[in-house]
Amino acid sequence: MKYIKKFEKSNVDKLKYQIGDYVICQEKGWLPSSNFLIFLDFIGNNIGQIVNKNTSVYDYIVKYENIPKEIKDYFNHQNGTSRDMTEFEIINHSKNKEKLETILNIKKFNI
After folding, report:
1. pLDDT tens-digit series, residues 17-73
2. Is-contact 31 74, C-beta < 8 A?
3. Measured between alpha carbons, how far is 61 from 86 in angstroms, rounded to an integer?
4. What is the full DSSP assignment across 35-71?
5. Does 7 score more than 60 pLDDT?
6. Cβ–Cβ under 8 Å, residues 44 and 26
7. Phi-psi region of 106 (alpha: psi -120 to 50; beta: other; left: phi over 0)
8. pLDDT value at position 57?
9. Which of 10, 19, 70, 83 sits at 20 to 30 Å (Cα–Cα) from 55?
10. Would you put residue 72 in left (φ > 0), alpha (ψ -120 to 50) or beta?
């Protein structure tokens, strides 16, 4: 007797974080540019929000607010406010933004 193969979920469904989660990221790549260090500092010291799960090489699209003009080119989605990130580039996450603000304050004041 033949059987029906179970429906397998796509990779998007298997991702660890959900749309709406708040995240702090760390860029793993390197882009030769004079503004890249400003970009690295911004990504590591600001909270982004996952706005979409992606099916390409990158896992998530993360949206940021108050992006400095000189690094706007590093953000390539939604009129320059969002960036592709992999699961490995997310260093902290929470459904609660205040929890991540506490983490950033601890980091900032070296507590």
Report:
1. 999 999 999 988 777 778 889 999 999 999 999 999 976 778 999 999 999 999 998
2. yes
3. 9
4. THHHHHHHHHTS-EEEEEE-SSSS-EEEE-SS--GGG
5. no
6. yes
7. alpha
8. 79
9. 70
10. alpha
Place of tokens 């603000």: 101
pTM of the model: 0.81
Beta-carbon-side half-sphere exposure of residue 34 (alpha carbons within 13 Å): 1
* Phi/psi of residue 24, nearest 5 degrees: -115, 130
Question: Are 45 and 104 spatial neighbours (Cβ–Cβ below 8 Å)?
Answer: yes
Distance CA 55, CA 23 (A): 19
Mean pLDDT of 71-94: 90
CB atoms < 10 A from the CB of 40, how many? 16
Could you give the dihedral angle defined by the CA atoms of residues 77, 78, 79 and 80, in that order, rounded to the nearest 10 degrees? Answer: -40
Side chain identity at residue 108, one-letter code: K
> What DSSP line would sit under 8-42, residue for residue?
PPPGGGG-SS-TT-EEEE---S---STTHHHHHHH
